[in-house]
Specification:
The structure holds three protein chains of three kinds. Chain A is mainly alpha-helical. Helices cover about 70% and strands about 0% of the residues of chain A. The longest helix of chain A is centred in the N-terminal third of the chain and has 32 residues. By secondary structure, chain B is mainly alpha-helical. Chain B folds into two domains: about 80 residues, no CATH class; about 475 residues, Cytochrome c oxidase-like, subunit I domain (Cytochrome C Oxidase, Chain A, Up-down Bundle). Chain B has a two-stranded antiparallel sheet. The chains are: A mainly alpha, B mainly alpha, C mainly alpha.
Chain lengths: ~80, ~600, ~190
């Protein structure tokens, strides 16, 4: 974290991370939708959707909500 | 008084806004009548609550800061700060203790009404509806007292002192938690005035979905109380994690801090269950959903699962701080180190974990799937292992100790006695075969009173007498204290031992009338209840008089080693004149070479008086 | 909420010896966890009441649309937070505004879904659907209100570099609301 004024390079790097994460999230969402229309109802679908939702949650918690800062306050991007 | 008036005015205005807007919508859009008791209360109350909290000082001292506006400074002296938004954990602790002691006494009076009605078969002084209202009111208010008074009251007052902190981690949140409780009490009283509700404190559907509107107010009140519990739990967890004084490692924490932490973890993890259950009942009542309406494929069993998922762990929110307090007191008044400290900590955490997987033992006769009976039987009985460890630690602590039998110690010892009975009778209810006979009889009533009253309220009394000199700066009257103890202790046994018998004979709980063959025992129980109730006259008199003109107490009248006794009575506004440094264990009594628990500034090592 | 609680108190709290940010951070995470349990209870009762059946055909285009909007608003919220942390207030405010607008769009989308729903609340799926989306929408609307406050305050220069906890905490709240929808979307639309 830059504590002293504008640090353009660091900011650009952090914003780039955001773009990568949202791209994966978007792909996962489309995959969810696609398997739901193709596979049809059943335990297989529930399992796959759960896996996808957990993956999305991990991405958001890890990169958007900075979960690791909870035990490592000075870490992060 | 000004904050209270502001709060009331804003609260009523908020209610008028919420209920009025809803009424307008109903008239203009739906073309119905503007007032519908269930819906109007449900929509008016949240705004009333916001108005109340902001009026009492939430806006003036806290909310303005959210918008970048300057906030007002807090009062630091005078009795007015007890009727105002204040962030000092000692003020909030006293607010909790006084409020809930008053509710406790009120609720006790209510149950005397219930007992008088039950003195003979047939109906004498109450109607059936009044009986239901009184019994339900007693149930929920006592549950609230049991959940809040040890953690909210003594936890708030003592935990930061024991940690050597200057305050809780979130002082404003702490004040918010307290000021959410008066609306709960007001709402419950209005509910009683509206004719009460007849579903007890458990609010089982389908009854709770179709009964009188008092039920809606009950749900709103208890939902608010759940919020109090969760916010308080979060505050304790963060405080204990972050606000420990230098050198206060986890292994040196006084056991009461561990008890408060365990109870906070439980209320933090599970209270949402109760909130969700009550919210679903509310949805069923006002939004016409059918979570529990079997006509529309809803399921009343769903409620019992969600409800007990919280409400069984809740009993550990009640008793764990109680256990922790009596272990404190047993160690200090036996002048011995606490026996098996690490095992006790493990047992507390074990209870936290196990408490979440035993809920369905309340449902053995509810018609849930048969395959669930055996696992819940086994898990429930497993919880007696950590409980037993705590109990043995208590016995090990007093073993060969030099017992100092002052009032707090008497109460602490009585908990060991009472909880033995409460624990052993619990086995009959955890076992499916015996529970099928005993379920919903007075055996259950006697059992949970032995655990909650015998385990927690006796510990509460121990705590009141133990910390009274610290909190008020004055000493209570020992003679009156002992008188209170003996009447309460004997009266308690006389009330609840016969209740086991009348339960085994098959008398149902929660009913206003019963077959005449139970007359004899019930008359006895009612007379004993009056005797038990009389003990609180001595308690109230002792507390009121001693607080006003008891002899001035020393800083450390019990010669205890823990940190809260190493500062003046009552403590100064920031608790310690200099930040304490922790150098040893809290309970090393009679250990000639043990380091003192704490060092305060340059002063000589304190708490080494054993 | 555990935000911006105690500048006045910091002097006689431990503010002088350690930063309040880790304390606030732990508090807000505990709040999220606790709130998540309420949503989990609602989701669990949806499966308890109707199993993995979905008796009604939902408007899939609308579902995917509002889900995408909410997901995208998490990105703008992230960009806003990052910009504020680096002192880039103008970009941060623009991204906050985008987040607010997308949040409002999501809420309107849910409202539209309610208006075209051809099932009633007393139907078991309707029970789950209306209570889950309703409770979530309540969080979205409150999140939008919080973000508006942050947006206005940011315009007054209240959040210079090093003092952006209010932005961070509200953005975290926004992500939390998104995470809830990550589970609710498949639970209601796809299963």
């Amino acid at each position: 974290m830059a504590a002293t004024g504008h640090n353009a390079a660091a900011e650009a790097k952090a914003q780039g991370t955001g773009l990568k994460v949202i791209a994966i999230l978007a792909v996962l969402t489309l995959v969810e939708y696609a398997i739901a229309v193709t596979i049809g109802k059943g335990p297989m679908l529930v399992t796959l959707l759960t896996v996808a939702a957990l993956a999305k949650t991990w991405l958001i918690l890890q990169y958007f909500m900075h979960l690791p800062k909870l035990w490592n306050p000075d870490g992060g991007h | 008084m000004r904050p209270l008036i502001n709060a009331l005015v804003l609260g009523i205005a908020g209610f008028a806004f919420g209920a009025g807007a809803t009424g307008l919508f109903r008239v203009a859009v739906l073309g119905r009548e503007w007032w519908s008791t269930d819906l109007s209360w449900s929509m008016g109350y949240p705004f009333a609550l916001i108005g109340w909290v902001m009026g009492i000082g939430g806006w003036k001292y806290w909310g303005r800061g959210w918008f970048g506006l300057p906030v007002a400074p807090y009062e630091t002296t005078g009795w007015r700060r007890y009727l105002d938004w204040n962030i000092d954990h000692k003020v909030i602790g006293i607010q909790y203790i006084v409020t809930f002691v008053v509710i406790f006494l009120l609720s006790g009076l209510t149950v005397l009404l219930v007992r008088l009605e039950l003195m003979r078969a047939g109906m004498q002084i109450l109607t059936e509806d009044q009986y239901n209202a009184a019994m339900s009111f007693h149930g929920i208010t006592m549950v609230a007292v049991a959940v809040a008074i040890l953690l909210g009251g003594f936890g708030n007052y003592v935990v930061p002192l024991m940690l050597g902190a200057r305050d809780m981690a979130f002082p404003n949140l702490n004040s918010l938690s307290y000021w959410l409780t008066p609306p709960v009490a007001v709402l419950l009283l209005i509910a009683v005035a509206m004719g009460g509700w007849d579903s007890g404190w458990t609010a089982y559907p389908p009854l709770s979905v179709v009964n009188k509107s008092g039920q809606t107010l009950f749900n709103l009140a208890v939902f608010t109380f759940g919020l109090v519990s969760i916010l308080g739990g979060i505050n304790f967890i963060v405080t204990i994690a972050y606000e420990r004084a230098a050198g206060l490692t986890w292994g040196r924490l006084p056991i009461f801090v561990w008890g408060a932490l365990s109870a906070s973890l439980i209320s933090f993890f599970f209270t949402q269950g109760f909130a969700a259950a009550l919210l679903m009942v509310l949805f069923d009542r006002v939004l016409d959903t059918s979570f529990f309406d079997f006509k529309n494929e809803g399921s009343a069993l769903l409620y019992e699962h969600v409800f007990w998922f919280y409400s069984h762990p809740a009993v550990y929110v009640m008793v764990l701080p109680g256990f922790a307090i009596i272990l404190e007191i047993l160690a200090h008044f036996s002048r011995k180190p606490l026996f098996a400290y690490r095992w006790v900590v493990g047992a507390f955490l074990g209870i936290v974990a196990l408490s979440g997987v035993v809920w369905a033992h309340h449902m053995f006769t509810s018609g849930m799937a048969d395959y669930l009976h055996a696992p819940f039987l086994v898990l429930t009985e497993m919880i007696s292992i950590p409980t037993g460890i705590i109990f043995l630690a208590g016995l090990g602590t007093i073993w060969a100790g030099k017992l100092w039998l002052r009032t707090p110690m008497l109460f602490a010892l009585s908990v060991l006695f009472n909880f033995t009975i409460g624990g052993i009778t619990g086995i009959f209810l955890a076992d499916v075969p015996t529970d099928l006979h005993l379920h919903d009889t007075y055996f259950v009533v006697a059992h949970f009173h032995y655990t909650i009253v015998g385990g927690e309220i006796f510990a509460l009394m121990a705590a009141v007498y133990y910390w009274f000199p610290k909190i008020t700066g004055r000493m209570y009257n020992e003679t009156l204290g002992k008188l209170h103890f003996w009447i309460m202790f004997i009266g308690f046994q006389l009330v609840f031992i016969p209740m086991f018998e009348v339960g085994v004979q098959g008398m149902n709980r929660r009913v206003a009338d019963y077959p005449a063959e139970y007359n004899g025992l019930n008359t006895w129980i009612t007379l004993a209840a009056l005797f038990l109730g009389s003990s609180f006259v001595f308690f109230a008199w002792n507390m009121a008089m001693s607080w006003v003109r008891g002899p001035i107490a020393e800083a450390n009248p019990w010669h205890a080693r823990t940190l809260e006794w190493q500062t003046s009575s009552p403590p100064p506004i920031h608790n310690f004149d200099e930040d304490p440094v922790i150098t040893g264990n809290p309970y090393d009594y009679g250990q000639p070479r043990a380091a003192a628990h704490a060092r305060l500034g340059a002063a000589p090592a304190a708490g080494d008086s054993a | 909420m555990a935000v911006a609680s105690a500048p006045a108190h910091a002097e006689h709290g431990h503010g002088s010896t350690h930063s309040r940010i880790p304390i606030n951070r732990m508090g807000i995470w505990l709040f999220f966890f606790s709130d998540a349990l309420l949503f989990a209870m609602l989701a669990a009762s949806r499966f308890y009441l109707t199993g993995t059946e979905r008796p009604h055909e939902l408007n899939q285009a609308l579902g995917l649309g509002i889900t995408s909007v909410l997901l995208l608003s998490s990105l703008t919220a992230y960009r806003a937070e990052t910009a504020f942390e680096h002192g880039n207030v103008a970009h941060g405010r623009a991204m906050l505004l985008a987040t607010i607008l997308m949040g409002a769009a999501f809420a309107i989308g849910v409202g539209f879904e309610w208006s075209i729903a051809h099932w009633v609340p007393s139907d078991p799926f309707g029970t789950a659907f209306f209570s889950m989306t309703g409770m979530h929408a309540l969080h979205v609307v409150s999140g939008v209100l919080f973000l508006i406050v942050v947006y206005v305050r940011a315009g007054k220069g209240h959040f210079p570099v090093g003092n952006t906890w209010a932005v961070t905490s509200m953005v975290m709240y926004w992500h939390f609301v998104d995470v809830v929808w990550v589970f609710f979307y498949p639970t209601l639309y796809l299963v």
